[in-house]
Specification:
The protein is an alpha+beta fold. The chain has 7 helices and 4 strands, in the order E-E-E-E-H-H-H-H-H-H-H. It has a 4-stranded antiparallel beta sheet, with no helix packed on it.
C-alpha cells in the first residue's frame, strides 16, 4: 500500500515512481513485476531510476522487501562469477590480438598466431554459452551446404524433410525457379 500500485496483469503492477517528481503527469511510470533473477523487479519507464533509488525513496532496503534471504540466488552468483572471469580473459585476449595485428608485420606466422587466438576465443565462448555455439554450428553447416550444392539443391533437400513438407502443405509455397 506504500505505492498504491494497481495490478495490470499476472505478477505485474504499475505505480507512480517515488524516486522522482511526477510534474502533474497522470500516468504511472513505475513498473513492478516478478523477475527471473530476483523475486521482484522495479523499473522506472520515465526517468530510468535505479531499483535502489526507488527503494531508498520509499525508505526501504532490499532486506525489508525480501526478508532474511539473499537478494540473488546462489546459482545466479556462480554464473556472474563465471561471466566475470570470462570478461577478464576476453580483455586480456583482445589486447594480445590487438598487439599481434598492429605491432607485428603481416607474415604467415603472425596470421597463424592470430588464427590460433581466434580459435581459442571461440572455444572459450562455446564453453561459456553452449546454446549459442549450437546455433553457430548449425549456421555453419547450412553455409557449407549452400556453398557446396547451391541454394536450389539445399531448398529441394529441405522440402523433403518433415518440417519442409509441413510448411509447403500449410502455405502452399513450392520452390520455383525463375
Amino acid at each position: 500500500m506504500l505505492l498504491h500500485a494497481k495490478r495490470v496483469g499476472r505478477g505485474k503492477w504499475q505505480a507512480f515512481c517515488p524516486a522522482h517528481e511526477t510534474n502533474g503527469k497522470h500516468r504511472p511510470s513505475l513498473s513492478i513485476g516478478e523477475g527471473r533473477k530476483s523475486p521482484i523487479v522495479f523499473k522506472c519507464m520515465s526517468q530510468g531510476c535505479s531499483q535502489d533509488s526507488i527503494l531508498a525513496a520509499m525508505g526501504l532496503t532490499w532486506k525489508d522487501v525480501l526478508g532474511e534471504r539473499d537478494v540473488v540466488a546462489p546459482e545466479v552468483r556462480r554464473q556472474w562469477a563465471v561471466e566475470a572471469k570470462y570478461r577478464e580473459w576476453l580483455k586480456e585476449w583482445s589486447h594480445a590480438f590487438y598487439v599481434i595485428l598492429t605491432d607485428r608485420p603481416f607474415t604467415f606466422s603472425n596470421v597463424f598466431l592470430s588464427e590460433c587466438l581466434m580459435s581459442m576465443y571461440w572455444r572459450k565462448r562455446d564453453r561459456m554459452y553452449p546454446e549459442e555455439a549450437a546455433v553457430r554450428r548449425k549456421r555453419e553447416r547450412v553455409y557449407r551446404a549452400i556453398k557446396k550444392w547451391g541454394w536450389d539443391a539445399v531448398i529441394e533437400k529441405w522440402e523433403q524433410t518433415e518440417r519442409g513438407k509441413a510448411i509447403v502443405e500449410e502455405y502452399g509455397v513450392k520452390n520455383e525457379r525463375i
